[in-house]
Amino acid sequence: MSLPEGLKYTAEHEWIAVDGDVARIGITDYAADKLGDVVFVDLPKVGSAAAAGRVVGEIESTKSVGELYAPVDGEVVEVNDAVVDDPSLVNSDPYGAGWMIAVRFTELPALLSADEYAALTAE
User: Is-annotated flag, keyword Nuclease (predicted)?
Assistant: First the structure.
């Protein structure tokens, strides 16, 4: 399982890349692997509100349906249309081209480090 340093992680298997007051969000390689081949991604509209711990999107695979949870409170400022058009990006490049949304936040909650997330998924 690939786990880039420098990102933050959630127990719900999202990764967060923080740049100033904007968090770019996607699902981890671990989550993508558990889902299987992703065939559909439904993301929120730009301008919509995101609430930490609440569902903001849906990820469907050949095996199941998963949910994308917002790790922060804020406003969705960007969505990755490329992943909507080609959901397989979630599997092939979850930390790069497979990112999902960007949220402008006011406060960053406590998140997991790469080591903490690795320990969580090893259980």
Answer: no
22-27 and 101-105 as β-strands: parallel, antiparallel, unpaired? antiparallel
H or E, element range at 83: helix 81-85
The parent domain of residue 99 ranges over: 8-111
pTM, two decimal places: 0.93
Note whether 99 and 83 are within 8 A (CB): yes
How far is 117 from 82, CA to CA, in rounded Å?
A: 27
- Match 């909650």 to its residue by tokens: 109
| Two tokens, residue 93 | 């490049």
Residue 43 maps to which CATH number? 2.40.50.100
Cα separation, 31 vs 35, in Å, equals 6
pLDDT-derived band at 1 (thresholds 50, 70, 90) equals low
